[in-house]
Write the structure tokens for this entry.
Amino acid sequence: MSLKSGQSALAGAGLGLRRSFLGEVLEAAPAPVAFWEVAPENWIDVGGRAGERFRAATSRLPLVCHGLCLNLGGPAPLDEDYLRHKVRPFLDRHQVRYYGDHLSYSADDGHLYDLMPIPFTEEAVHYVAGRIRRAQDILERRITVENPSYYCAPGQEMEEIDFINAVLKEADCLLLIDINNIYVNSVNHGYDPADFMRRLPGERIAYAHIAGHYRERPNLIVDTHGAEVIDPVWDLLDQAYAYFGVFPTMVERDFNIPPLPDLVREVARIAALQARHQSTSRRALAHA
């Protein structure tokens, strides 16, 4: 599948664009932020002054979209009308670089307002991959799927890493690699996060998320996106750049949202880490 022109290269460090930030962003876009991400459900069909301000913000920097209701693993039929008549025009209008959703399910007869785990089975691989391929056909572009956090694995027949890799290969889609989710799952399910990360297909990485979380108990982390990124997650991102090379990466923060300058400092930390790895790569090439 060839990519649409709007799905061109992305680079640098990014941040989720929240409505409360629009005034500050339009007055003076924060320098370290190279791209924005939104949940399209929050902006599709938004008009008036809010829609104009959103378009003004997204015209300045590249936009990526990470959805909440595509329901890739759910039992309900794929919402093709939503994809064709809502998502696709939105992606085209705003020249969205990447669009995708979670490798989970979120609806049946109605939206569940949570991301539920898909059984790690061969049957589920074929089911989910088929839905991803159909979504890509409608949108005429590859979509991203995110490795999710999960707290139980009902009906598990495969390892998580094997399930994710099988879906990516069969669907021929892209990966939104969530570094925090790898760390969260490694604690909750007892595996080595660096080993898991290295087994993902680096050639499919579109961009990455990092985020904070809440430690309920020593062996239980809740993926909240409501705190600062902790050092082990930064360390895992450092290892990912060393292994795969630098890829676009953004900070997710969905509640307990601090002032924009506080988030920009985390974005700047991503940019500094990217610059260090790029400098190391250039020196290595120079001495090759």
